[in-house]
Backbone:
């Protein structure tokens, strides 16, 4: 949770969220411990949390509605497997253009790999 708070709660993320018209637009709640439904970061609101196994975030902006779901599964030797799934709808012509930029260029893949890399290092 702390990794997400740092990654999406930065000043740069806040500026991008404002530029895109993200909902939610501001940070609320604790992202270090005790995360609850209703907490938010710029662009992402907590929709469901079942610690320690699941965290579902969602949001919307001018060009897209989206969700980011993390599932944690215990594995042998006290390890944990983290799965991240993203879902999005890109309505209208502007949404399709935005999708081409974000998904088509590989930018989304880069951001998600960086995020998961930070989660792995933190673990």
Residues:
């Amino acid at each position: 949770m702390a990794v997400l708070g740092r990654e999406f709660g930065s000043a740069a993320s806040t500026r991008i969220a404002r530029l895109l018209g993200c909902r939610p637009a501001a940070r609320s709640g604790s992202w270090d411990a005790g995360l609850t439904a209703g907490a938010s970061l710029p662009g992402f609101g907590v929709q469901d949390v079942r610690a320690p196994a699941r965290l579902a975030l969602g949001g919307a902006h001018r060009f897209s509605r989206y969700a980011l779901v993390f599932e944690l599964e215990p594995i042998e030797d006290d390890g944990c497997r983290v799965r991240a799934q993203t879902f999005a709808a890109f309505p209208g012509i502007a949404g399709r253009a935005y999708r081409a930029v974000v998904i088509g260029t590989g930018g989304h893949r880069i951001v998600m790999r960086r995020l998961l890399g930070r989660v792995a290092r933190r673990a």
